[in-house]
Amino acid sequence: MSILIKNGNIITATDNYVADIFIEGETISAIGKNLSVKADKEIDATGKLVMPGGIDPHVHLDMPFMGTFSSDSYETGTRAALYGGTTTVIDFILQTQGKSLQSALDDWNGRANGTAVGDYSFHMAVTDFNDETKKEIKTFIEQHGITSFKTFMAYKGALMIDDRQMIGLMEEVKKNGGLINVHATNGDMIDYLVQKHRSEGKLSPLYHYLSQPEITEAEASERFVDMASYTGCPGYIVHLTCEGALNAVRNATKRNQKMFVETCIQYLIIDASLYEQEDGAKWVMSPPLREKKDQATLWAGINQGIVNVVATDHCPFMWEQKLMGKDDFSKIPNGHPAIENRMELLFSEGVAKGKITLNKYVEVASTNAAKIFGMFPRKGTIAIGSDADIVIFDPKEKHTLSAKTHHMNVDYSGYEGWELTGKVKTVLLRGQVAIDNNDCKVPKGYGQFIKRNKVSQII
Ligand code: URP
Ligand code: ZN
Ligand code: ZN
């Protein structure tokens, strides 16, 4: 099967030009002006932006968490991602404490293999680093192509590891050419504040926010960055939300560390005032939404090249699940749905409002994640030989977000009624038209697991 995309405005992290793209099988085989080739199918992209498929390196599909499971399966989650222009996601496998990493990988493979619609990979979350786990790191990197290891400095009593384990893991991961991802907030401080608020009868969603002040994130980010500097291990801070934490990274980079930063779309565009609403549980996530001054910091960080990736931390729960914490904020499952909305929200709030350029948009929504996580140039760009993962985007079309029309398996939207400029029209995944005219054309199981390269090979 061959496809010719004609006359589109091709945008990569560095380029902006009008040309045709010829696709044969799963990959791009030619790019040029007025290509004279015969294709099985032609798509006229005149007046449209043609960009690499989005990569969301922070999602939680079908994940056991806080006594329930996130409500999107690999099928519904990756399909919704495709509708929104995201062709590849990276999910988190969670080790059960006391068990091996391999047994967790087996569980996650059982949920994802044969059900994903879009492409996916895994980060391995290490919640119990010991002599046995240590032996598995090399196998994960070299045989499974899982090169990033997630750590939690919070969720005390559940997922959190201590600094002793962190240092040991960093040494092993560095030795084998991997990367450590971190949820960097101070779990002990948060645990103290949660219990304090509960004992004072302060139980509404606002106290979720007040139990995780900015200092809890700034302190842990700084500590993580210091440990990474000491061990020489490359690091990636997930869902960074605030000025204090970004300043910790600014300081660290003076030491020439390999340290990457991700924020998520919600931290750029909505703020903590939502916790005062009756339905504040919709935005209960960790870290919590912050202040307007933090949004300004994050947009600046993107333009300064210190914030490298805009992800989602997509972790949806039905309203019924959120109600598990109706009488106690600490029981509200943490997470928020955005896998389908990220690319359009970032375009509308970022590019259309003049906060970031088109090239920066592609860089933070796709290219940097491909580079950092060892998928570039297969993913994350439009180039000869790359996978034909392509989004054809109308930069002018206006539309409204709503739970009534989205494809995520969740019965509310955190962005109900938001009017956006710019819409995903057609999405190709590995040379197949996956989304066209608001219709999904690829079946359950089309999504492939993407083996990733060692960090040292690509940065
Ligand atoms: O609230 C969140 N972020 N839920 C998912 C788990 C995590 O911390 O990333
Ligand atoms: Zn987290
Ligand atoms: Zn997360």
For this entry, give a set of tags.
single chain; 459 residues; alpha/beta; Urease, subunit C, domain 1; TIM Barrel; 2 domains; 9-stranded mixed beta sheet; 8-stranded parallel beta sheet; 13 helices; globular; binds N-(aminocarbonyl)-beta-alanine; binds zinc ion
How would you sum up this structure, described in words?
- The chain is α/β, with parallel strands linked by helices and 459 residues long.
- It folds into 2 domains: 2-51 and 381-395 and 422-440, Urease, subunit C, domain 1 (Roll), CATH 2.30.40; 54-380, Alpha-Beta Barrel (TIM Barrel), CATH 3.20.20.
- It has 13 helices and 19 strands.
- It has helices spanning 74-83, 101-112, 131-144, 163-175, 187-199, 206-210, 214-231, 243-253, 265-269, 292-304, 319-322, 342-351, 358-372, and strands at residues 2-11, 16-24, 27-32, 41-44, 49-52, 54-59, 64-65, 68-69, 86-94, 119-125, 148-152, 179-183, 235-237, 259-264, 309-311, 390-400, 419-429, 432-436, 439-440.
- The strands form 3 sheets. Strands 1, 2, 3, 4, 5, 16, 17, 18 and 19 form a 9-stranded mixed β-sheet that branches. Strands 6-9-10-11-12-13-14-15 form an 8-stranded parallel β-sheet. Strands 7-8 form a two-stranded antiparallel sheet.
- α8 links the parallel β13 and β14.
- It starts with a strand and ends in a 19-residue tail after the last strand.
- The model has no long low-confidence stretch (mean pLDDT 97).
- It binds N-(aminocarbonyl)-beta-alanine and zinc ion (2 copies).
- One zinc ion is lined by residues 58, 60, 313, 315.
